[in-house]
Amino acid sequence: MSILLWVGVLVEIVARTLAIYKLPNLPALHVYVVIEFALLAWMYQLYLHKTYARYVIPVIIIAFTIFSIINSLFIQSIYTFNTYSRPISNLLLIIFALSYFYKMLRELKVRYLEKAPMFWVNTGILIYFSGSLFLFIFSNYIVSDKGLLLLMWNIHSFLNIIHNIFYTIGLWLSRENSE
């Protein structure tokens, strides 16, 4: 999880730097989507190891990576928002998050949810990726309406803040639990 946060910070710095110099920063997002998905899917593979995930998630990671590369090279330019790869990533991560909650409810091993790091991380993932799904699908279409675009990205920023707060709580609890 901390690897993902550091990769996110690095991509954010690169994207902001490119924007400051008036250079296109969307290629960084095309790369980040693949890295983010692979790391989160791998995390779910570890937590859902006694289910279908052990065998299916590695195949999904490979298939998604291949699709994203094909999408970036031949379907959607790396200079446009990737409205195919990003929503597919969102949908798959939503499915993984719901699968984790289903596993938690089925097994009932977690006594105090507020003390379970993965509960916080998973909740952040579910909120962010489900909340931003339609924005990612329609972002290239709402670009012409600047007011709507600003509103949608403000909502995205709020979801991202919530997402990162939940990640932080999860990381903090995981360090606390390991001591």
Task: Provide an overview of this structure.
This protein is mostly helical. It has one domain. Helix content is 79%, strand content 0%. It has seven helices and no strands. Helix 1 packs antiparallel against helix 2, helix 2 runs antiparallel to helix 3 and helix 5 runs antiparallel to helix 7. The model has no long low-confidence stretch (mean pLDDT 88). Keywords: Membrane, Transmembrane, Transmembrane helix. This is Membrane protein, putative.
Low-pLDDT residue intervals, each spanning 5 or more residues: none
Largest sheet: none
Radius of gyration: 17 Å
What percent of the residues sit in helical stretches (DSSP H or I)?
Answer: over 70%
Number of individual domains: 1
Report how far apart the termini are: 18 Å
Query: SSE order in H/E notation?
Result: HHHHHHH
SSE layout and pairing:
Blueprint: H1 2-20, H2 26-47, H3 53-75, H4 85-107, H5 117-131, H6 133-138, H7 146-178
Helix pairs in contact: 1-2, 2-3, 2-4, 4-5, 5-7
